[in-house]
Amino acid sequence: MKIAVSELIVRFMERLGVEVIFGMPGAHILPVYDRLVDSKIRSVLAKHEQGAAFMAGGYARASGRIGACITTAGPGATNLVTGIANAYADRQPILIITGETSTYIFGKGGLQESSGEGGAIDQAALFKGITRYHKIVERTDYLGQVLKQAAKILLSADSGPVLLSLPYNVQKEMVEADILDGIAFTAGHAAGHGTGHAARGRPRPADELARLLAASRRPVIVAGHGCIKSGAQAVVAQLSERYGIPVTTSLKAKGVIGEESPLALGCLGVTSDGQAYRYVVDHADLVIFLGAGFNERTSYLWDARLLAGKTVVQVDTDPAQLEKVFTADLAIHGDIHEVLADVVATLEREGAAPKAPDRLPRRETASDTAARPEKFHLIQSFFVRLAERFARDAMIFDDNIIFAQNFFKVSAGNRYFPNSGVSSLGHAIPAAIGARFASSGPTFAILGDGGFQMCCMEIMTAVNYRIPLNVVVINNGTLGLIRKNQFQLYGERFIDCDFVNPDFGLLARSFGIEHRRIAAEADLDDLFAHADLEGAINLIEIMLDKNAFPSYLADR
């Protein structure tokens, strides 16, 4: 049976398990949109294509499934770039469908043409560096192979964005429906489920790790996002609690173990409070990296003191991460969950004694926070109350990151999504909206007032689709990081960092949503006592002095 390519593409997405697609229609992609009318895939209209890309990314991060977005040709596609670059850096499985002018006018100056012919924008070149696979489908005779390659990448353990650009006339061509029968629509085996790389040639690296753990006095685990990707949170917590091993995390891994645990050291990172750094440097004799890339932020700009004089173990599903920036005494290429389960079984079988962790930093309590008249007291108090009010099932998308990194104790029952990838401003609101199409529960988008003005129009997407959302804006009337750097590094020569904000109360009223202004502790009392933080859309502004800077020193 023959069907139009537009219908085949929709069926392809259905077979991939795509449930929601975010985007904006245009003339060159309307054949596919027309087939979505009869599909079980839900189409969501964003306010800007960048927002659609961030929504697809938020959906993928919250669900672990394929996110999808769709746009027209030309500016529809180019507006996606930042969101797709973010997904590429985070290795998110995102399927992007774009329209294109008809092939018979390639090179003739067609409206919004991006074929690369005759001086037109070259969309393939534009997306080459930020997708795992990109193809302008100019003919149908190789369509099956294109879709097979797209599915293979999207369903692999090492996934990333895939972009298919469909010329208008190709969307209308007829092809055999059974093209899809030759495509595997099941997830591929994750690379590295064995233990293929091990220092010193050990045949069972998990046994070697168990031996190192048993022999160490003060081991410490550095948990990265790979623990979340492999579903290893429970076994990391089991290893930590049963054998008294402190855990510090990368920013993306906050909550791998509940940060209320006495064994939780908090984040390891240049913008953190430094407790984890000091413990690792001063006390640890064995450092175990689990799915942590040891990037610039986590590594304190690759500070050699962190690993000096210590035995270092690294476990990662991705072989490219092993010993990328440091030499490990033991490097294990394997699934983190499986390796740790094997380690725990070995320690139990051999009757290993738990450690008696000492010299752990004192954890701050709520009473400590309430008694401290610091410049960030309101923000700190907000995060303490947020953790107390929502101990589980909350999703927090955070563009600001520095305050949450230090003040927000993420429980094992919550999901914290920092703005990673390329760290683009304007990410939190659309990403949180996308996530709500995958998962319910109290949802917060936290961002500065500069980033807010890059994406605030997407609040209307939440309004249109009745998506409950709490947008928390830190209102200091400045680009805080820029002003801090100009203060610390450029002799207080401030330029292009300060601005005037709109009246957020009037703005909220125009959106038809609730507004709260937090200028004193009593305002927080009222917010958490009376605001509907689960079923409504709220715009919450927290006031901050523009000259209140975090204490860490940037080098640029």
Fill in the keyword field for this structure.
556 residues; alpha/beta; 6-stranded parallel β-sheet; Rossmann fold; 3 domains
Secondary structure layout plus pairing:
Elements: E1 2-4, H1 5-16, E2 20-23, H2 30-36, E3 42-45, H3 49-63, E4 67-71, H4 75-78, H5 81-90, E5 94-100, H6 123-128, E6 133-136, H7 143-154, E7 162-167, H8 168-172, E8 174-176, H9 205-215, E9 219-223, H10 225-229, H11 233-243, E10 247-249, E11 264-267, H12 275-282, E12 286-290, E13 311-316, E14 330-333, H13 336-349, H14 366-370, H15 377-389, E15 392-398, H16 402-407, E16 413-418, H17 428-436, E17 443-448, H18 449-455, H19 459-464, E18 469-475, H20 480-489, H21 504-511, E19 514-518, H22 521-530, E20 537-543
Parallel strand pairs: 2-3, 2-4, 4-5, 5-7, 6-7, 9-10, 9-12, 10-11, 12-13, 13-14, 15-16, 15-17, 17-18, 18-20, 19-20
Antiparallel strand pairs: 1-8
Helix pairs in contact: 1-2, 3-5, 3-17, 9-13, 11-13
Quick structural summary:
The protein has 556 residues and is α/β, with parallel strands linked by helices. The chain is 35% helix and 18% strand.
Task: Provide structural commentary.
Helix 1 (5-16) crosses helix 2, helix 3 crosses helix 17 and helix 9 packs across helix 13. This protein starts with a strand and ends in a 13-residue tail after the last strand. Mean pLDDT is 90; it is low at 189-203 and 366-373. Strands 3-2-4-5-7-6 form a six-stranded parallel β-sheet, with helices on both faces. It has a six-stranded parallel β-sheet with strand order 11-10-9-12-13-14, sandwiched between helices. The chain has a six-stranded parallel β-sheet with strand order 16-15-17-18-20-19, sandwiched between helices. It has 22 helices and 20 strands. It is an alpha/beta fold. Helix 2 (30-36) links the parallel strand 2 and strand 3. The protein has three domains: 2-182, Rossmann fold, CATH 3.40.50; 199-349, TPP-binding domain (Rossmann fold); 366-543, Thiamin diphosphate (ThDP)-binding fold, Pyr/PP domains (Rossmann fold), CATH 3.40.50.
